[in-house]
Amino acid sequence: MSNAARQAGEFCWINLLTPNPDHDREFYARLLRWSFREIPGMGYLILVDGQQAGGMFPNFVPHGPSSPPGIGVMVRVENADATGAKATALGGRSKPAFDIGPRGRMAEIFDPTGAQLDVWQPGMPDAVASCDGAKHGAPSWFELITPDAPTAKKFYCDLFGWTASDMPLPTFTYTVLKQGDAQVGGLMGRTPEMPEFPPFWGTYITVDDVDATVAEAPRLGGSVCIPAQDIQNVGRFAGILSPAGVMFYAITYAR
């Protein structure tokens, strides 16, 4: 993935929600080499090698409810209102779309299994991610874990025009989702070995050496929730928790 703005049908942004963005920047700067640009009164842009990857914001709003700490993912669309209406017609649901100043318009989408992602209609040319997914610290893969993979697969393919390719594995089937010829993400059913948790879209972040990242995270106040392990023909990954409880996957891809 080169330094190119994400196109319609691609994951185009992450929103990292955390209780104290000012404090948490150091963890991500040291572990993932992120740098930040302040968005006055809101939070920070996340930069990877000088290129945009997403934003970091408080997980609460004044006089409103808090959201759990986590990473929200966004898919670029041509029309956020129309995509929200289509999601509802396909058996999911959508909150009303709204503007984020001049940068664009978004809607919160929930698939029929309950997983959330946001759709983003950019209003400015630079309002989408442009970082190289091969760089240390770049979000590079997005993966849904859900109790009903067939329903989720049909929903997203119908919603975004994605195509799906199933890969049967010994204990489960993994589905790769494509926009045209480009792989954009994957999904899998929750296996019996997994603990009970709501369906969610997880974010994989490229690192140069996942074992070094696993060793460094606890020294910075984070923790490891999934030990480093290999994915045949893909690479090596681990699950990381930030000091505030934000979970993400770190991955080193096979050369």
Structure write-up:
By secondary structure, the protein is α+β, with helices and mostly antiparallel strands. The protein has 4 helices and 17 strands. Helices cover 17% and strands 44% of the residues. Strands 1, 2, 3, 4, 5, 6, 7, 8 and 9 form a 9-stranded mixed sheet that branches. The chain has helices at residues 21-32, 80-89, 149-160, 210-219; strands at residues 11-18, 35-39, 43-48, 51-58, 70-76, 93-94, 98-100, 104-110, 116-122, 139-146, 163-168, 173-179, 182-189, 200-206, 223-231, 235-241, 247-253. A hairpin with a 5-residue loop joins strand 16 (235-241) and strand 17 (247-253).
Task: Write a brief caption for the model.
With 255 residues, this protein is α+β, with helices and mostly antiparallel strands. Helix content is 17%, strand content 44%. Strands 1, 2, 3, 4, 5, 6, 7, 8 and 9 form a 9-stranded mixed beta sheet that branches. Strands 11-12-13-10-14-17-16-15 form an 8-stranded mixed beta sheet, covered by helices on one side.
Tell me about the largest β-sheet. Answer: 9 strands, mixed
Cα radius of gyration in angstroms? 17 Å
H/E element order: EHEEEEHEEEEEHEEEEHEEE
Overall body shape: globular
Average pLDDT taken over every residue: 94
Give the helix proportion (percent range): 10-25%
Derived from helix and strand composition plus strand pairing, the structural class reads alpha+beta
Unreliable residue stretches: none
* Strand fraction: 35-45%
Number of helices: 4
